[in-house]
Amino acid sequence: MAAQDRRGLSEYGVSVRDDGYARWPGYVVGVGVVLLTALPVFRSARADSFPLSTYPMFARKIDKPYLSFVERLDDKQRARRLDPELVASDEVMQSYRTIKRAVRQGPEAAEDLCRSIARRVSKRERGKKDVRLRIVRARFDPVAYFVSDAEPDEREVIASCTVGRKP
Amino acid sequence: MKAFLEPWLKPSDPRAVAICRWILFWFAWPGFRFGRGHAAYAEFAASTGWQGVGLLGMLHVPLAGPSGQAAIAAALTITAGLALVGLGYRFVAPVAALLKLYIAWIPQGSGKINHGGLLYTLVLVVIAFSPAADAWSLDAVIRRLRGRPRAERRMEYTWPIRFIALMVVTMYGAAGLSKLIHSGLGWALSDNLRNLLLWHHFITKPPTMLGVFLADYPTLCRALAFGALWLEVTGPLALFNRTYYRLVIPGLASLQLMIWVTLGVMFKEMILVFACLLPWDTWLTHADRWVASALAAWRRKTAAG
Q1: Residue B202 to residues A82, B95, B187, B241, B264, Cα–Cα distance (Å)
Q2: How far is A5 from chain B (nearest CA, A)?
Q3: A4 interface with B at CB cutoff 8 Å
Q4: Mutation target vs B (from A49, A58, A122, A149; most B CBs, 10 A cutoff)
Q5: What is the model's pTM?
Q6: Which comes out higher in pLDDT, residue A93 or B11?
Q7: What is the CA radius of gyration of chain A?
Q8: B258 — contact with chain A (CB < 8 Å)?
Q9: pLDDT tens digit string along B155-192?
Q10: Do A13 and B148 touch (CB under 8 A)?
């Protein structure tokens, strides 16, 4: 402990009180923060929050997942998946969840999202013609996809829109 | 209990916690990288269904528009910059930590929590309320100019780093428990990790094909999944045993690295948190001894010459 003079000042000139009562706030804050961090794990995984999480990441078993994504189609109908920052954010999983949520809310929400993305794509791809966007929901078998290059088990176009023009 | 408490009471070098201050506030300082991703998000969030989450959401903290976010980023640049160099640390560091919490909270309203930032945001608050500017800071220089003594090894400099370790093992322990609650031991003993390794090649761009390679060996995948689950669930025990601590902290850091290498999910903020847990105190002691002996040798040489 730092040497203290008779006024209770430490060698840094800062008043330090060290007894049982002074330590209690420290214990309460310390134990409280740890409990606050750990306890949300017992809540529903869907109640995930920030900065106190329910830790749903990688927690559920994966079989054949449904994935939603945005495809960009050029004038020759070649499809390419869009970069996340054009969808919502440069954080991949947040962009993915944005698409997933729009798909879950229905075609109208998906079309709104499609038009919102189209505006950003239009700014980036000024002058390019006949570019379309498509929001797709598909069910994949991960092992089959990688082993035998299998197509998705199911595939559904939820919304589509045109870049740079009114759809 | 003694094994748990003893490491908290050990004196530490004030420069070790100062290094943590540098590491953590360097990342909080947005001046050099408040980039297009965030700007795109601000534009997007204002026009679509954004919903505040967590405590700030419950308190109805409003979403600032693009210009408001730019102003907050400017305030964060100033306060985090001052905290970084350690000027008026006691006042600016908590402000910077709260501003960073707000800035980090905004994108969470997209419906997906960025788990990489969880621990970092909490750790930043811890370090903001610690005596992390007693060394290698402008506050320390000013104190010296006023004739005050240099900060020396004290146990006050131990708790911040120990608290960060406590937060790390608590959070990983909770994440492990979550896997057991939602999936049971089947999380590790089924084809789950194999599917996970492949699934992420659909939605992210892992930097290597190691995940696809590992997926070819189902038994190895189960062993790795079991090892990861074990490490997470038993992580908190590291605070009661020094040897296990030396195994668990690098183990969790390696787990994080493997998540990036195989799944392409980089919790970049976690790199900083783990960097704070490097044995800076020991390294500084060795460095001091080396410098002292090198200086003594140089003095002897100049005196003889």
Answers
A1: 12, 40, 21, 41, 11
A2: 14
A3: no
A4: A58
A5: 0.76
A6: B11
A7: 26
A8: no
A9: 889 999 999 999 999 999 999 999 999 899 999 998 88
A10: yes
Complex ipTM: 0.74
Which residues, in sequence order, are CB contacts of B1 under 8 Å at separation 6+? none
Q: Is B174 on the interface with A (CB under 8 A)?
A: yes
Interchain CB contacts (distance < 8 Å): A and B:
188
Chain B touched by A83 (CB under 8 Å): no
Burial class (CB in 10 A: 0-12, 13-18, 19+), B229: buried
| Interchain CB distance below 8 Å, B264 and A92 | yes
Mean pLDDT of B196-222: 87
**Please, are residues A115 and A135 in contact by the beta-carbon 8 Å criterion?**
no
Checking if the pLDDT of A13 tops 60, the result is no
Strand pairing partners for A73? A79, A132
Of B108, B143, B167, the CB nearest to A37: B167
Q: Would you say how long chain A is, in residues?
A: 167
* B197 contact partners, CB below 8 Å, separation of at least 6: B211, B212, B214, B215, B221, B262, B263
For residue A81, the SS3 value is strand
Q: How far apart are the first and last CA of chain B?
A: 57
B199 and A CB contact within 8 Å: yes
